[in-house]
Specification:
Strand content: under 5%
CATH class of one domain: Mainly Alpha
CATH topology of one domain: Mitochondrial carrier fold
Helix content: 55-70%
Shape: elongated
CATH superfamily of one domain: Mitochondrial carrier domain
CATH architecture of one domain: Alpha/alpha barrel
Structural class: mainly alpha
Largest sheet: 2 strands, antiparallel
Radius of gyration: 29 Å
Distance between the termini: 96 Å
Number of strands: 2
Number of helices: 11
Length: 287
C-alpha cells in the first residue's frame, strides 16, 4: 500500500515539473520586445488635405518629368508628320525612326537639348499634377466614407474592393477633366525637339502662354483645350481605380499583419500600386 502511494506521489511530482518546463521557442516569444508603432497621425482639415494632395505630386514631378518626356517622344515616334513642301503645300510623311529605345531617347535628348530639354513642359506639368490630384487624392477618402459609412473613425479600412475602385474611378475622372488643358500643353511642349531628333508634329511653342494662345485661337477656343479629353477621362478612371484601391488595400492588409504606420510602409505600397496602375493605364496612355 505504501509502495503504491509513493509511486503516485512520484508521478504527480513529474507532472508538475513537466508543466513548469517551457521550450526555448516559448521563452523567446514571451521575452520578445513588442512591435514598435508610430504615434497616430494628427487629424487634418479637409482644406489641408486638398493642399497637400496638390503640393506633393507637384514636387515629385520635377524628378519624374525627364522620364515622362522620354515616354512622350517614344510614343510619338513613327507617327505621321504634317509638313509643307517647297511649294507650300501641306503633305503627310512618316518620319524615320530616331530612337532605338528609351535609354537612347534619354541620352540623345540630353545631348542635343541638355537638361532643359528633358524638363520641357515643367510648368504645365506642375499645374496638371496639382489640379488633377486635388480631386484624385483629396476627394478619395471623403467619397469612400460616403459610400461606406461606419461608426469607426477609420471607416475606409473595411470597405470592399469594388467600392474603393468606384471611389478611385470617380476621383480620377474629375481629376482628368480639370487637368486636360495642362496635359495637352505639356505634351506639345515635350514633343518640340531639336531638328535632328524631332518626332511627331512640331508646334514650336515657346512657352505655356504661347501654347494656350495658339490652341485657343486656332483650334476652337476653350474646346480646343479639351481635345482628347474623353481618352483622358477613361485613363483617369482606370488608372485611379487601380492605383487608389490597390494602395489602400495593400496598406490596410500590411497594418493588420503588424506593420507599423510610417513613410516606409507608404513608399512600399505606393510602388506596388503604381506598378499595378501602369499595367492597366498604359494602353489608354498610348492612344
Amino acid at each position: 500500500m505504501s509502495a503504491t502511494l509513493k509511486s503516485q506521489q512520484n508521478l504527480s511530482a513529474k507532472r508538475i515539473s513537466t508543466q513548469n518546463i517551457t521550450s526555448p521557442n516559448q521563452t523567446s516569444l514571451s521575452s520578445a520586445p513588442p512591435l514598435k508603432t508610430l504615434p497616430p497621425r494628427p487629424n487634418i482639415s479637409q482644406l489641408e488635405n486638398f493642399a497637400m494632395s496638390a503640393l506633393a505630386p507637384s514636387m515629385a514631378v520635377v524628378f519624374t518629368l525627364p522620364f515622362d518626356t522620354v515616354k512622350v517622344r517614344m510614343q510619338l515616334q513613327g507617327e505621321v508628320k504634317i509638313v509643307k513642301d517647297f511649294s507650300g503645300k501641306t503633305i503627310r510623311v512618316v518620319a524615320e525612326k530616331v530612337y532605338k529605345n528609351s535609354l537612347d531617347c534619354l541620352l540623345k535628348t540630353y545631348k542635343f537639348e541638355g537638361m532643359r530639354g528633358l524638363e520641357k513642359g515643367l510648368m504645365p506639368s506642375i499645374l496638371k499634377e496639382s489640379s488633377k490630384n486635388v480631386f484624385r487624392l483629396g476627394l478619395y477618402d471623403p467619397i469612400l466614407s460616403i459610400m461606406h459609412p461606419t461608426d469607426d473613425s477609420n471607416s475606409t479600412s473595411s470597405a470592399p474592393a469594388y467600392k474603393r475602385m468606384i471611389a478611385g474611378g470617380l476621383c480620377g475622372a474629375m481629376g482628368a477633366v480639370s487637368a486636360n488643358p495642362f496635359e495637352l500643353v505639356k505634351t506639345r511642349l515635350q514633343s518640340s525637339a531639336a531638328g535632328a531628333i524631332a518626332v511627331g508634329n512640331q508646334y514650336g511653342y515657346s512657352s505655356i502662354s504661347s501654347a494656350l494662345y495658339n490652341i485657343m485661337s486656332k483650334e476652337g477656343g476653350i474646346r480646343g483645350l479639351y481635345r482628347g479629353s474623353m481618352i483622358s477621362v477613361y485613363r483617369g478612371i482606370v488608372g485611379s481605380a487601380a492605383n487608389l484601391s490597390s494602395y489602400t488595400m495593400l496598406k490596410d492588409r500590411a497594418k493588420r499583419e503588424g506593420f507599423s504606420e510610417g513613410i516606409l510602409l507608404d513608399m512600399e505600397c505606393s510602388l506596388i500600386s503604381a506598378f499595378i496602375s501602369v499595367i492597366f493605364m498604359n494602353p489608354l496612355d498610348v492612344v
